[in-house]
TrEMBL record:
InterPro entries: Chromo-like_dom_sf, Chromo/chromo_shadow_dom. Residues 296-452 form a coiled coil. Residues 113-131, 138-153, 160-171 have a biased composition (Polar residues). Keywords: Coiled coil. Residues 113-174, 208-245 are annotated as: Disordered. The keyword ATP-binding does not apply. This is Protein complex assembly-related protein. GO terms for cellular component: cytoskeleton. PANTHER family: CILIA AND FLAGELLA-ASSOCIATED PROTEIN 58, CILIA AND FLAGELLA-ASSOCIATED PROTEIN 58-RELATED. The lineage of its organism: Eukaryota, Fungi, Fungi incertae sedis, Mucoromycota, Glomeromycotina. Residues 7-47 form the Chromo domain.
Amino acid sequence: MPKGNYWEAVRILDEEIINSISYYFVQWKGVDQNGDPWKPSWEPETNCTQALIEDWRNVKNSKEIVIKNTRQVCRRSSVASSMTISSDDESKALEQILMNEIYEGQSQNCNNITSNLSPIDPETTSETSTIIGDDETSNPQPNREAQNTSNVFASIKLISPTTKRPMSDNENFVEKDENNFSVKKLRTDKLSRDYESIDELEKQFFSSKQSKTALETPPPTTPSSVKDHLSDSESIISDSENELDKTENRKINCLATTHSQDTNSNDLPYLINQTSVRNEAIATLLQEREYYHKTVMRFENDWKNQQAKNEKLTQENNQTQKELHDKQIELSNARLQLQQLQEQLTCMEESCNKKDEKARNLELEWEDIKKQFDFRHKNDQEQIDKLQKTKDLLTEENQKLTSEIENLKVAINNASQNFSINRHSTRSSGNVKTLRVENDKLRSQIKMMSLKCELQQQSTKIIEEAAIRHESTVRFLLKQMNME
């Protein structure tokens, strides 16, 4: 079968009522994920089927019936020890009636009892039924037969008289039961009253024994109530033992008092018969006391086992709490790490938002710079075009001036040659001075034109350098944008 996928509720082992809600201790069938059998667990009533709850109620009722029948059988055993039987056939009939009543009490829900009740040691539950035969010469030995009938039989003593002596009508009377079985009462009213007092003591004892049934129910498994339950169990056991001792002592004292008061009677066979009856009653009480002592010992063993289980549960609970504490520490550390990661993520988101905002600002700046560059480039281009045209004009003028200067130089040379050749010619001095003045003017104009040409060339270089600088700035900004 697949591990951890099979589970089935077998039966209910116990019931607890907490805050008006029923909780059942369910036994499971199957294995968990590790291959281990499922352990019993407490489940609310809503998690249990109606069939399981009905089975548990039948088992619970059957336990109560068995305890009740056991008390009735124990009471009948004490009553039977105080009766006299008229004959052997009547003795057998009475024994059969009592056994039938016992089996009728046990026949209800027999299947549930045999399948759900925990096994008990046969030594503690073996019961004896003693039948004393008719022997007028000697006191017969009891015939003991061990009977193990579903661990609920109580000890039964059926005693037949050792002497068959007729009794007067004023001392006893015959009473018939529903099966027409004749039972003779004891002789004296005083002895009947004594046995009635014994019955009252037995009632007190059985009522006190109800406290022992509290030990059969398992204590609560919560650690807070373990110590209280253990102390209550110890007090219940000690009180039950004290009550048992007191009850047995009262019974024995009552029988001894009755025996001492009846010794004055002159009816020797009757006294012998009553003595044997009392001895058998005392033996029955001693056997009952031994049985109850064994029951108390069994309760003590169960209590010790339950105490060991409680200690084990306490250790498991402490281990679970320790593991839970470790898990809580791990969870707190994980939460702290998660908080740190969330803070880092928040910081990264803020930095990304800042970078996005910076990128948007750079884009806006780039657009502004681009617009300014386009505008300046357009203006610079227009100025460059104008300067280029001016340069061309100046170049043409410069060429013209250069040609004129050369012409003037040629003219000057020719004039100087003519002057040297015709120095002795009759030329007026006024013409010479005029030529010199014109020559000086021409030279000054040539210098001015050359200076203008140089200034124009320098301004052209400055404009070209500014244009180159603007282009380098634009390229640098483009590189930064691409890198971001």
